[in-house]
Amino acid sequence: MAWNEPGNGQKDPWSRNRPKGRKPDLDSVLNSLKARFGRLGGGTGGIFTIVLAILLAWLLLGSYTVIDARQVGVVLRFGEFSRMLPPGFHLKFPSPVETVTKVETTQVRSLSDNVRMLTRDENIITVDFNVQYQVSDARKFLFSNRDPEGTIRQASEAAVRSVVGANVMDNILTSPGVDAPAPTAAAEPGVKPEVRETLQQQTRDILQATLDEYGAGLAITDVSFQNVAPPKEVKDAFDDVNAAREDKQSQENEARAYASKVVPVARGEAARIAAEADADRVERVARANGDAERFNLLLKEYRAAPDVTRRRLWLETVEEVMADNPKIVDGSNGKNIINLPVAAGQGSVRTVPGVGTVIQSATTTDASGQEKSQ
Question: What's the CA gap between 203 and 161, in Å, rounded?
Fold first, then answer.
């Protein structure tokens, strides 16, 4: 029966031989415990039983460990490195013979810092950077460095200073994603959009090499420049410079757009004129060759029959001239009046008996309403 059951207070072992209202005496408590354990094993045998039970409990509770899937266990035997434990259930010697330190190896740790530094062209800029890393070697992480976070912080700052100090300010500030104004890219035609990624990759490589040299047991997963900007003291002047460069870039873009519009038109016009000139040249040369060949043929015929050829040429010439001129044949010996239509503005042609052919000029009306001859 439990000693603290409600009812008679005599069931309380601590107050069995104690007067009511008095606190238990320490000596009486110790004597009671000694008597109980003495009855358990009978003198020395009882103490041995107690020690054996404690030893068994110590062995059972301290002889195993469970490593989580995200962890790695580092086993120390009497303070000296013994072995590594992968995730799972493992047996070991109980503490203090062997102790297990569990280290997170899949956790991505992060470090952020802000530094002010000089560039290669002796300009001052402020860089906010972030470093993400994981534990790659738990043994080195625990024992190679006293302060791993302080070590990676100093190594990161040194890597950033090394990369930034080897580049000019325009190359650093013209990276996409950086908060500083980007139009300075127009001032440096050689700057490419991949500059930021290149600088971050260089920083990551330098930082990883430094940590490997220190034996820190850390692997860098990412390095990013969160913000790169000039100091606040010169930000206004820097903004003015960038505004001027923006205007310059805008005007250059307008000039390029105008050139891209005008130059093709001018080239097309030049090509058209050149083609027309070439066609005229070919035509004139062909016509000259044809005339020369025709003249040679006429000369040959003229030498063979001069009179016939001369008369034929005269007839052909007269026929060609008279082909476009009106011709009037009057067989009445001037007895009839003939009115013929002529082209507009040239009047009319009439044959008047006893006078001959008369050309009557056309008349027009001036601003005053009077007719005048042309």
Answer: 9
pLDDT one-digit tens code per residue, 111-125: 999 888 888 888 888
For tokens 């060609």, the residue is 320
Backbone dihedral angles phi then psi of residue 43, each to the nearest 5 degrees: 75, -125
Token pair for residue 258? 């105008």
CB distance 209 to 230 below 8 Å: no
Distances (CA, A) of 172 to 119, 197, 254, 288: 9, 10, 27, 71
Q: Residue 253 CB: number of other CB atoms within 10 A?
A: 11
Distance CA 198, CA 193 (A): 10
What residues does 356 pair with on adjacent strands?
352
Tokens linked to 106: 């899949």
Contact criterion met (CB below 8 Å) for 229 and 242: no
Q: In what order do the strands lie in the sheet with 339-340?
A: 339-340, 348-352, 356-360
Distances (CA, A) of 348 to 31, 121, 327, 338, 353: 166, 95, 14, 10, 16
Residues in the chain: 374
In the predicted model, residues of the chain with pLDDT beneath 50 are 1-3, 9-10, 14, 18-19, 21, 175-193, 344-345, 347-348, 350-374
Q: What six digits make up the tokens of 132?
A: 């993400």
When computed from its CA atoms, the radius of gyration of the chain, rounded to whole angstroms, is 58
Q: Mean pLDDT of all residues in the chain?
A: 76
Tokens, residue 220: 């860098």
Query: What's the burial of 115, exposed, middle or buried (CB within 10 Å: 0-12/13-18/19+)?
Result: middle
| Overall pTM > 0.70 | no
Query: What does DSSP say about strands 124-135 and 109-118: parallel, antiparallel, or unpaired?
Result: antiparallel
C-alpha 177, offset from chain centre: 9
CA distance readout (Å), 33 to 25, 38, 135: 13, 8, 52
Interatomic CA distance for residues 247 and 361, integer angstroms: 72
- At residue 144, the 3 state secondary structure works out as coil
Report which DSSP code applies to 146: S
CA angle 223, 226, 227 (to 5 degrees): 135
Q: C-alpha 316: how far from its chain's center?
A: 82
